[in-house]
């Protein structure tokens, strides 16, 4: 009964306590040590044997894999192309560019994360998705550069972090 009561009183789509805390942090500037990872397409020119053009470019999932590995490593805050990431950030791949909350960017793609640089590096490099990406770096020449940074400074999020929900209006007699 308690579980049913819990579900019936919660708002559908309401943020979890973790999302609330993350969103609250994203509305303030933050600084500290961390890492910077740069992803870039393979150099133009001859396509390596066995490769397709699709193998030679950065994709949305590559950026998402880096972001997820950084979160797993304890990242406290993150930017992609300098845009502060919130719980509502949308990253999409459109052709050979990415959209971060509707703004388009061309490669190279820079992801920065504030957190313990050693822990971030270790977790990222052990992540199976990043290990797979590294095989493409070696085989096809995709770009990868990870650097530890003593001081990163992120502005507050520029996007609205207020959740909006649909709600039912009472019918009017009319």
Please supply descriptive tags for the structure shown above.
174 residues, alpha+beta, five-stranded antiparallel β-sheet, three-stranded antiparallel β-sheet, 5 helices, 31% helix, globular
Radius of gyration: 20 Å
Q: What is the helix fraction of residues, given as a range?
A: 25-40%
Order of helices and strands: HHEHEEEEEEHHE
Main beta-sheet strand count, sense and barrel state: 5 strands, antiparallel
Strand content: 25-35%
What is the end-to-end distance?
Answer: 40 Å
Shape: globular
Across the major sheet, the strand order is 3-2-7-1-8
Give average pLDDT, whole number.
Answer: 84
How would you explain this protein's 3D organization?
The chain is an alpha+beta fold and 174 residues long. The chain is built from five helices and eight strands; from the N terminus they run ααβαββββββααβ. The strands form two sheets. A five-stranded antiparallel β-sheet has the order 3-2-7-1-8. Strands 4-5-6 form a three-stranded antiparallel β-sheet, with no helix packed on it. Helix 3 packs across helix 4. The chain is globular, with a radius of gyration of 20 Å. The N terminus is likely disordered.
Compact summary:
This protein has 174 residues and is an alpha+beta fold.
Strand and helix map with partners:
Layout: H1 2-9, H2 17-26, E1 30-40, H3 60-72, E2 77-80, E3 83-84, E4 91-94, E5 97-100, E6 103-105, E7 109-114, H4 117-126, H5 128-140, E8 143-154
Antiparallel strand pairs: 1-7, 1-8, 2-3, 2-7, 4-5, 5-6
Helix pairs in contact: 3-4
